[in-house]
Amino acid sequence: MLHLLDHSAPRRSDYSRRAQALLEGLRDQGVQTVQLTGTGHPATQVHGEGWHFYRTVALGRRLPFVRTAAPDSRLGAAASTAALALRLRQVAKLTRPDLIHVHLPSANAVAAWPVARLHKLALLVEAERRGLAAPAYPFPRAERWALGAAHAIAAGTAQVRAALRAEGLAGRSIAVIPPAPDLVPGLPASARMTNLVGAPLLAYAGGLEPDDGLELLLTALGQLRRKHPALRLLVAAGGEREACFEQLLARPGLRGHVVFAGPLSYRRAADVLARADIAVFPALGLKPSLQPSRHLLNALAQGCAVVASDLPCHRELLVHGHSGMLFEAGRRASLVKAIEQVLAEPWRIDGLGAAARDFMSTRRSWELTAARYRRLYEMVLNKRDASR
Asked: How far apart are CA 348 and CA 342, in angstroms?
């Protein structure tokens, strides 16, 4: 299988760890893999932690009039797509794969489809978490057409599959392959600060956009502190929008009880979540968020007690009262009630975390994800052979 990855795959990043975890799981199940990265990294040879990656050099290094084009412009995107298609054809002729697996970003399918058709290869494309066409890609119609021409599409949730079908891909084979966490599920150790009795700690990891729900959580914290005056909140996030919360944090009920840890990687944010009593994910659902946050997946894998809004992608992961607590999205009273239920019965914290950890270890491990992809490969190849 020829895996077409983002240019950051060889580097130490959360994307590379996820990609390499999948590749390792596939190889353990007897699937031979070849890795090709898109344009974007230097021309030096790059090896990622024992993995060999074929590289794609941008056309701008050879054509001066392309060099000055912005990467997200139509000229820059067309040049990157052409360079990737040429390099993909070279690697396909060299390695002779049976199938091309296009990882995120799914816009790379525009370069992969003509190569797959030329060499009579099967084509599998991973869909974006919000459905079709990343907003930054200047050729959304080309991406839609490439996805429609693929032999199969892999979607992270049933909501993503429904969105793809609603956008005109009803005739394609769309398989739901749930995402796995960045961390290995099933770790029994708890990192909670047990010595801070009577001073419960909430933790939030995610973005600072209005739809992420942090403002809702802060207003709920002010109300909760009337009954739990020692309650605190640690925010594993930061950036330019942090200044938008200064006025809210200056209120008497919140001053000195909220700490911003700054921008963190998924793994470092996961360390923060594990040290809290309750990890809160208050997404409002105003935008079409069709897949859960990776912070939520990591929190469940570590056995955190989770309180999350009742978005469809959250309901696929959590059973209310068993592996987490769900509240009505956007409702402060519902959020306060859910957190209050856990704080009133602190013995439930370990039980909620254990049930969440068991779910992730038995249903969302990378071994299971690799097995799902392997079965999808077999199905696609069998259909292609039958059509011949």
From this structure: 7
Q: Is 146 exposed, middle or buried (0-12, 13-18, 19+ CB in 10 A)?
A: buried
Classified as helix, coil or strand, 324 is strand
Close Cβ partners of 86 (under 8 Å, ≥ 6 residues apart): none
Q: Could you list the residue range(s) of the whole structural domain that residue 147 is in?
A: 2-180+365-387
| Residues 257, 260, 266, 269, Cα dihedral to 10° | -40
- DSSP state letter for 251: S
DSSP SS3 for 339 = helix
45: in domain: yes
Structural domain count, the chain:
2
Nearest residue to 359 via CA among 295, 282, 303: 303
pTM to 2 decimal places: 0.86
Q: Is residue 186 part of a domain?
A: no
Number of H helices, E strands in the chain: 14, 14
- Whether 114 is covered by a domain: the verdict is yes
Domain shared by 382 and 262, yes or no: no
The DSSP letter of residue 37 is: E
Find out whether 317 and 300 touch, Cβ atoms under 8 Å. yes
Give the list of residues 6+ apart from residue 380 with CB closer than 8 angstroms, or none: 99, 122, 124, 151, 152, 173
Give the tens place of pLDDT for each residue, 29-67: 999 999 999 886 544 444 455 688 999 887 655 555 445
Query: How far is residue 84's CA from residue 294's CA, in Å, rounded to a whole number?
Result: 28
Closest CA to 26 of 381, 376, 358: 376
> Is 196 contained in some domain?
no
pLDDT surpassing 50 at residue 88: yes
Given this model, what pLDDT does residue 43 score?
Answer: 43
Shared domain check, 44 and 131: yes
User: Do 381 and 264 fall into the same domain?
Assistant: no
Tens-place pLDDT, residues 124-162: 999 886 655 555 566 778 888 888 889 999 999 888 898
